[in-house]
Amino acid sequence: MDELKDAIGKLNESVHAQSLEFSIDEDSKRTIVKVVDVATKEIVRQMPTEEALQIAKSLDKAIGLLIRQQA
Questions:
Q1: What is the superkingdom listed in this entry's lineage (predicted)?
Q2: What is the distance between the alpha carbons of residues 15 and 17, in angstroms, rounded to a whole number?
Q3: DSSP state of 1
């Protein structure tokens, strides 16, 4: 039980060392969530990733072209 409490304490400490940032991607209008290290300001994780955003933008552009060609 003490090991579990120690593990939970360590997790809580690491969470306090990080913050969440929310933004909207201008092109795709998708919500972006970033986990940022408070001390270094380094982005620890981003959801969706930059790669996923680029793929979504490419798909949106391709769908737009397809719709224009059918019209």
A1: Bacteria
A2: 5
A3: -
Report if pTM > 0.85: no
Minimal CA–CA distance to 38: which of 63, 10, 13, 3?
Answer: 13
Q: Alpha-carbon distance 28 to 44, whole Å?
A: 22
The 10s digit of each residue's pLDDT in 8-44 is 787 777 767 778 899 988 887 889 999 998 889 999 9
**What DSSP string describes 36-71?**
EETTT--EEEEES-HHHHHHHHHHHHHHHHHHHHH-
Q: Which residues pair with 19 in a beta bridge?
A: 36
